[in-house]
Specification:
6-stranded mixed β-sheet; 17 helices; alpha+beta
């Protein structure tokens, strides 16, 4: 009998994020396409250069209302007709506004892409912005605001932004506006914002999916290619600044049985060479159920169902400058608010004194890199990441290079990055909870001056 040696596995390779092909239509619209065989649901992301800091003074939220109104009728269809046409295509169309700009997202079966792209083009080219539809969207937005205020996590985020950033900075105020500013919005102000900022020359279309048999060039020319507008206008955005003097703000919620925590500051964004190490270190601190924060606060002490640490890009400028919010969030039961914060600060101080372990680094890199193929199974997930790169003025191969850089990050490098990201004496802490019960224990910790504001 002949014996054959057992096959041996090859050297594992870091998964490569799909590389897009870049082009431009005659009207100036930038196009990134990515052929993904087998992805029969095509995802299209339109990135509009309409950042929130370009909203007129006193009209915070007009970008959000404009984004929502894009699908509420065109020069060809009423709002009801437009929705019916989308449904016949089996398509979904969503839009939202954030600090970098406005995003319009389309998902549709590949066989219905021509019709759906025509509808998308109509929404961008000639939105109706009918008075009654805009008024309805404004009322809906006003109805949402009290619910957001009642939500402890949303309330903490609102207070955190107001506390961390200068009052004159748009990033310090709610992204979707306040009751006062939204109430001022009408169809005229929505159209004015649209005409000032929405044009193909400053927009990018990302198309991802199985493009087999699809003449995408011809299809784009017949749909998004007929959209016209002025030339792109240079932006004048200012760098984001913040005051990270260590302090505590309690948003008073008398009788609250839990305290919502949001702790953090700003730090480097994805343009900075430290970003991969910061990602790894932050994951070790609070990226998963087995992270340091959860091991102490959840498993050992039972204070919480989970605490997370994360980095969230705020806005990047074309010159490569930008900032990310580095934060720790979660909730703890009211009686243990003081002890939980005490233990959280001990975790940070121990991390600074002793560093991460190789085992922690290895587990983090394995999870961050190993999950990538699953994370990008759908066309929509790939399109969304490519659109993020466009918004953040990153090269097309950024995500692919990031996984290689994560894989190459060492324990010492990750430790230095996370220690610099979360210095115990330079953190702004927002607590949404019962001030009468938590103020004294928090003051005793000495982590910063404590103030109380109305809930």
């Amino acid at each position: 009998m002949e014996f054959h040696p057992r096959p041996q596995g090859g050297t594992p390779r870091v998964w490569a994020f799909p590389a897009p092909e870049r082009g431009r239509l005659g009207n100036g619209l930038t196009v990134l396409r990515c052929h993904r065989p087998g992805q029969q649901v095509v995802a299209v992301e339109i990135v509009l250069d309409a950042p929130l800091d370009t909203e007129p003074e006193g009209l915070d939220g007009v970008a959000t209302i404009m984004a929502r109104a894009l699908s509420e009728g065109t020069d060809k269809h009423t709002a009801e007709e437009f929705a019916a046409e989308l449904e016949r295509c089996g398509a979904t169309l969503d839009a939202h506004a954030d600090h970098p700009g406005v995003r319009v997202s389309l998902e549709v079966p590949a066989s219905r892409l021509p019709k759906a792209l025509g509808l998308l083009a109509d929404a961008l080219r000639a939105p109706a912005f009918a008075d009654d539809e805009v008024d309805r969207l404004v009322r809906n937005r006003l109805d949402e605001i009290p619910h957001e205020t009642a939500n402890p996590a949303r309330r903490a985020a609102k207070q955190f932004a107001a506390e961390l950033f200068p009052a004159a900075s748009r990033v310090s105020r709610p992204r979707q506006g306040t009751e006062e500013t939204v109430a001022r919005i009408d169809s005229a102000s929505v159209r004015a914002f649209y005409e000032a900022h929405v044009r193909p020359a400053s927009a990018t279309a990302v198309v991802v999916g199985d493009l087999t048999g699809i003449d995408l060039d011809g299809l784009l020319a017949e749909t998004l290619g007929v959209w016209t507008g002025d030339e792109a206008r240079p932006g004048t955005a200012s760098p984001i600044t913040a005051d990270d003097t260590g302090r505590v703000v309690i948003v008073d919620r008398p009788g609250a049985v839990q305290t919502q925590l949001l702790i953090g500051r700003i730090g480097p964004d994805r343009h900075d060479s430290v970003w991969p190490a910061q990602v790894v270190g932050t994951y070790c601190l609070g990226g998963t159920l087995t992270s340091r924060l959860d091991r102490v606060l959840r498993e050992e002490k039972g204070y919480t169902y989970g605490v997370r640490a994360f980095g969230q890009v705020l806005r990047s400028l074309p010159d490569g400058t930008g900032a990310a919010m580095l934060a720790i969030s979660g909730s703890v039961d009211t009686p243990h608010t003081g002890p939980a914060l005490d233990d959280l600060w001990k975790v940070l101080r121990t991390l600074a004194a002793e560093g991460l372990t190789d085992a922690e680094r290895d587990a983090a890199v394995h999870n961050l890199v190993g999950v990538a193929p699953l994370r990008y199974e759908t066309a929509a997930s790939v399109a969304d990441t490519l659109a993020d790169q466009v918004e953040q003025h990153l090269p097309d191969d950024f995500q692919a290079q990031l996984y290689r850089r994560l894989d190459a990050t060492g324990t010492v490098e990750a430790t230095a990055a996370v220690v610099n990201a979360f210095p115990p004496d330079r953190l702004v802490t927002v607590l949404v909870g019962d001030a009468a019960r938590i103020k004294a224990p928090v003051e005793a910790l000495g982590i910063g001056e404590v103030t109380v504001v109305a809930g």
